[in-house]
Every structure is written in C-alpha cells, then in structure tokens.
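ARCHIVE RECORD
Type: protein–small molecule complex
Small molecule: guanosine-5'-triphosphate
Source of inputs: curated submission
Record status: active
Notes field left blank by submitter.
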Amino acid sequence: ASQFPSRRRVEPITTHTGPANQSQHSSSSSSSSIMAESVIPEMPPTMCLEKPSIEFSYVGIDAILEQMRRKAMKQGFELNIMVVGQSGLGKSTLMNTLFKSKVSRKSFPGTAEEKIPKTIEIKSISHDIEEKGVRMKLTVIDTPGFGDQINNENCWQPIMKFINDQYEQYLQEEINIDRKKRIPDSRVHCCIYFIPPTGHCLRPLDVEFMRRLSKVVNIVPVIAKADTLTLEERDFFKKKIREELRANGIDVYPQKEFDEDAEDRMINEKIREMIPFAVVGSDQEYQVNGRRLLGRKTKWGTIEVENIAHCEFAYLRDLLIRTHMQNIKDITSSIHYEMYRVRRLNENNTQANGLGEHHPACREI
Ligand SMILES: Nc1nc2c(ncn2[C@@H]2O[C@H](COP(=O)(O)OP(=O)(O)OP(=O)(O)O)[C@@H](O)[C@H]2O)c(=O)[nH]1
Ligand SMILES: [Mg+2]
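STRUCTURE (tokenized, with ligand):
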C-alpha cells in the first residue's frame, strides 16, 4: 500500500492541471488506467493558473524524501576508514573494536581470542552491516605502523600514495566512456590518526604527517591508549593538541571552512572542542554486572570501551557512523577528490604525450 505514496499525493494536482496534460498522457502512453482516472471536467489550462484552490495547492515535493530513502535503501552505503599511526599504538585493535562494537556486534561472527599480530602491509577489511533494512559496507584500511626507523623522514609517503591511488582508480572509472552506472568507491573517506599518549605535546612527526595528510583526506586525530593517562593528564593533553593543531595550521575534520550553516557550525563546534578523542581499544568481551561488553581487564577493574564515562571511543564511532558519515563522504568527494581530479585533468591537458609514471597529482604537497 505504501509503494506509491507520492503518486497518490499528487493526484489532485494531476486532475486539476487539466486536459492539456491529460490528453498528452493518454495519446503518448495510451494507458487505460490513466484514462480511467481522468474524471476531470474539461477546462482551459489558464483557469488553473488563475484560481489555484487551497486544497489543491499541495504539490507533494516532500515525497522526494521517500523516493530518496527507498533508492538509498536499495543501494546501501559504503564507508572507508583508514587507521594510521606509529607502530604499537593499537590501530589494529581499534579497527577490531569498531567492527565488534555496537556497529556490528550482532552480525560479527566473533573470532577466537588470539593476539593481533604486527601489521606489515596495508590491508583492507570489509564488513557488511545491516540494521533496520539499511545496508552498509564498512571497510577499515589497516596500515603498518611507522616511526620505528632511525630516519622517519618520508614515512608518510606510502599512506599518501595509497590515498592517491584510490582517487586515481575512481578517476579512471569516471572518465571511462563505458563507465559503470555506480563506480566502486575505494576512496579513503576518513583517516584516523593515532597520537601516542605522551601527555606532553605533538611530536614533529605527528605534525608533519597530519599537515600533509589533512590536505588530501579527512583527518580525525585520536589519543591512543587513553587508559594510560589520568583524567587531568587527558584533558591537558587534549587542550594542548588542539592548540598545536591550530598553531601549525592543521585543519582536521570537521573543518571550519566547510560548515554549511549556523546549525552545522553549532554541532561541529562541539566536536571541535572535543577533538582529539581519547580512545581505548579492545576486541575482548567481558562479563560486567551481567552484561557482556568490550573492555580491557586490569588488576584494578575493567575499562569499558563503549562507556563514555571511561573513554571517548563511542563519540568517535558515533561521529563516523551515526552523525557525520554522509558529510565525511561529501567532503571527500567534493573537496579532496575534486582537488585531485582538477589537478590530474589539468595535467592531462598540458601533457600531450599522456601520463608518465610520476604525474604531479601524485607528487607530495
Ligand atoms: N593499554 C592499552 N593497550 C592497547 C590499547 N589498544 C591496543 N593495545 C595493546 O597494544 C598492543 C599493540 O596493539 P596493535 O593493535 O597491534 O597495535 P598497532 O598499532 O596495530 O601496531 P602495528 O601493527 O605494529 O602498527 C597490543 O598488545 C594491544 O592489546 C589500548 O587502548 N590501551
Ligand atoms: Mg597493526
């Protein structure tokens, strides 16, 4: 019954817009149902313009929302998140936390309790989540930790290359004459940057990394292993990091300049005041007060990773999945990818001989 709500709503208008439309319909589509519906008195179209009656003034534009909802339900959603940071900060653990947390616990099969190995290559793991008929493919891209070398000068390069490679793949699909109706989207929508919980300040490596990456991808900084800081240390460190980001001109997500209106600004301002999220990760479940929850068991108690009184993982998850997913994707596509696309196409135009191996779009910023 709810299949054609929009059609029902516009009925009065259809009948009132008069014979011009109706006769066109019946002659072009020769549909008998339309003919049967047309119980309209013959009147010139001008009359409709002169005397719009109040009960017929409802056009039904709002029905577009229902159409969009159904289309989106059919297509499903995709979100690609990347985790980046120094080795051993808990990137792989947090990736598992995300999969096992409320986002997908119902559908997650639950692996044997084994230790997460050191990540040695960039690896994507996808998981299909379904809730209330809405399907979502959540992909987390795990990256090997950096900062272990004596010289960590260019350790951001493989990450930057991976991000640009995904833009390039998308671009190639887009400019293809025979392009797919729906281009597979492997672009990195968001990069979670792990800051070590030193409690002091950002390291030059963190500044360098985020400064470069924030120009090509949405960066969400987090304080890793926040259970190692006291509440005062955590607050101080968060404040200090915000100051340093500002001082170094690093624009992390949600970027001020992309707030669309006052409401956006108000919501995003609250998030900007919370950033970086102090997170704790775990893929182990424990029984606490009769409930099973993800946590880290210590000698002095269990840290519940999804409990906002314990850490800010839930805020991070909600930002990524519940409240800002569409915006994160929109900024990726209309700002970051667009910049890449313009640069690449300009470069194509100037280089008559086609592409070399190192086109400027992939060069460092
Ligand atoms: N205290 C604490 N330990 C954590 C947390 N998250 C992960 N760990 C532990 O830190 C160690 C390293 O975790 P991983 O998830 O492998 O770290 P990684 O960043 O993926 O490391 P690489 O793959 O080498 O880059 C493991 O022993 C985890 O159990 C956390 O939030 N707090
Ligand atoms: Mg790892």
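CURATOR ANNOTATION: Residues 91-92, 118-119, 142 surround magnesium ion (ligand 2) (CB under 6 Å).
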